[in-house]
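Summary of Year 1 activities. Much of the first year was spent building the evaluation harness for sequence design. The harness presents a backbone, in tokenized form, and records the residue chosen at every position. We chose the following record to illustrate the format because it has been used consistently in internal testing since the harness was completed.
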């Protein structure tokens, strides 16, 4: 089946709320639509009594964020179930605990959209909005979904730091900044945990993804993640102050 393109409903969205309404209706990627809906119908036994979201997942957080956390895609039984990024799975547990410890979240856990979680100065999103098979979106799916990321970040003009969780996120942020007309360093620095790449007034800070394949094996530890977010907060404060001068 030929790949469709993302289109906005009627006029381009005027607010983040309008954008969210468009995102959740998206059916541009046939493979992802089939997988997210199949997963929602064939629930994991531990969630058998729950109603899965089973749709694209919008970003979440503070509209005046100075830090944007970029993941990969919703987890099949995490955000695809709950309808909120990094909510309802162990990856989210790691992420929001770290954000809580540096003051970016009001609580250390995220299990449902009505759990009271709020973010302060941070926004959490992903380049791909639907749960992909094996957590591996294709390049075409990534590129199709890029219109949502571009539109979303355009509504977040105070973002100064991108925390890229994994190489996929790093490459997606890089591509977004290039599409937005930023002057990009050449050649592109390689992805590395803890690396920092300045692009104009913004900085990309990279971390290994909070997936279980990294956290269970010890490749990513909580102190390592804390260091990334502590540094992101410092950079966001400095960059925001410079922008206001």
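For this record, the design step produced the sequence shown next.
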């Amino acid at each position: 089946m030929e790949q469709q393109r993302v289109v906005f409903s009627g006029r381009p969205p005027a607010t983040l709320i309008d954008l969210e309404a468009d995102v959740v209706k998206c059916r541009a990627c046939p493979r992802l639509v089939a997988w997210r809906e199949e997963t929602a119908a064939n629930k994991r036994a531990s969630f058998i009594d729950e109603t899965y979201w089973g749709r694209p997942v919008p970003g979440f957080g503070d509209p005046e964020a100075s830090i944007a956390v970029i993941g990969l895609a919703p987890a099949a039984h995490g955000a695809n179930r709950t309808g909120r990024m990094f909510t309802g799975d162990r990856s989210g547990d790691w992420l929001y605990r770290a954000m809580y410890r540096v003051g970016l979240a009001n609580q250390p856990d995220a299990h449902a959209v009505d759990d009271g979680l709020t973010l302060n100065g941070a926004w959490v999103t992903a380049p791909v909005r639907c749960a992909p098979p094996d957590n591996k979106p294709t390049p075409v799916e990534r590129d199709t979904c890029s219109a949502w990321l571009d539109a979303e970040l355009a509504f977040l003009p105070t973002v100064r730091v991108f925390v890229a969780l994994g190489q996929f996120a790093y490459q997606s942020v890089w591509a977004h900044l290039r599409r937005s007309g930023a002057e990009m360093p050449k050649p592109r620095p390689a992805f590395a945990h803890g690396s920092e790449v300045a692009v104009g007034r913004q900085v990309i800070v990279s971390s290994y993804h909070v997936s279980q394949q990294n956290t269970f094996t010890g490749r990513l530890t909580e102190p390592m993640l804390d260091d990334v977010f502590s540094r992101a907060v410092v950079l966001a404060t400095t960059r925001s102050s410079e922008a206001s001068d």
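The mean pLDDT is 94. Quantitative recovery figures across the full test set are reported in Table 2.
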